[in-house]
Design brief:
alpha+beta; two-stranded antiparallel ribbon; single chain
């Protein structure tokens, strides 16, 4: 799944924080890179409301 969305695994074996919002049509509606955990929920909820 990570490769499908362009998230590469680093030399440490981990990925950076990235996420995507998939709309009802199955297409990526928004991509978040980088993700700031404190702000991320509000960003996603705002974008989700726009899909409404």
């Amino acid at each position: 799944m990570s490769k499908s969305y362009g998230v590469e695994i680093t030399d440490s074996g981990r990925t950076s924080r990235k996420s995507v919002l998939v709309g009802p049509d199955g297409k990526v509606a928004a991509a978040y890179d980088p993700v700031t955990p404190a702000d991320h929920p509000d960003q996603v909820l705002a974008d989700l409301a726009k899909l409404g």
